[in-house]
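Protein record

Derive tokens from sequence
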Amino acid sequence: MLKCSFTENKIEAGCDEAGRGCLAGPVFAAAVILPIGYENELLNDSKVLNEKRRNELRIVVERDAIAWGVASYSPEEIDKVNILNASFYSMHRAIAKLSIQPELLLIDGNRFKPFGTIPYHCIVKGDGKYMSIAAASILAKTHRDEYMMEAHSKHPFYYWNKNKGYPTLQHKLAIQEHGINEYHRKTFNYHLQLKMDL
């Protein structure tokens, strides 16, 4: 089972993002504060869970968390600040939505931009180590997938119901045939990527 907390008796918020490597759609982030001593043996990195289990755990996390927030950065915003900064800023937006101010932030990954004066720790593969980060990874992933399913209903020929905006060959071939639209990140070098794959 993952670790419950990084420290003792501090209000910790786990933070993670989803969609950083996508060609289309926003990057989503979540921040989650779990009760001290919280236990859930099913919580894990969203990437190792199937869709059904992620959706089940989303309900559990949103019910059990002391506070949680989900936010996003749009493709237009990503194009302005680059995807790395957009990942940080979407986490900032998620943290700002928390109804309780955390005393420590646990960030999945190795880099972060400070949010106000709140101390933080960057933890590589933290979503597989700490429950609060795993919970955040599940919320970010499921909320983003839900968004991309709605986008798919408007543009079904990109198969976002399957690839969720990630650079699968099917998605790239659809871009070659139909071009890009308002959901795509315009700063990505699509032509170079297609030449590498085809």
